[in-house]
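ARCHIVE CARD
Drawer: 12
Card no.: 0347
Subject: one protein chain, sequence and derived structure
Cross-reference: see card 0346
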Amino acid sequence: MKKIILSVVLFVAIIFSANAQRFAYVDTKYILEKLPDYKAAQQKLDEQAALWQKEIDQKNEALKKMYTKYQAEEFLLTADLKKQREEEIVKAEDVLKDLQKNRFGYNGDLFKKRQELIQPIQDKVFDAIQKLAQARSYDFIFDKASGGAAMLYTNPQYDVSEEVLKKLGM
């Protein structure tokens, strides 16, 4: 009786393991930090960001000096000169804000430079993950570094998007 139960349990386990999906995870942050190309690209990016920040700091200092000079001379200026200086200060502030936005804002120069330098390296890592997943028959590979449940590879056989659309009458 024990042999029969053991055989049935073993048979069921084999069936479930044959149909089991294979999962894996990677830590892309760890992988990238180990790549010399990534370190070099990150250093270039940091250097460029520092140069842009220095440029912004210089313009900010010039703006502060302009404002301090205005405050010191404010009582000696005519109404027209006051207005002119105030407009110059406001214009300089706007220029500084635009520069900050263009350098560090969404889709700014830093973002574009990061895409230029880092994206090709990330693409290489992603390709290696895809090849590994296919070679080892993984169905899903998750990224530990993403902080969420980012999937870097999925077996298309498990995509049920079309079925969901059919259920929605699409």
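Annotation on reverse: The mean pLDDT is 87. The CA atoms of residues 51 and 57 lie 10 Å apart.
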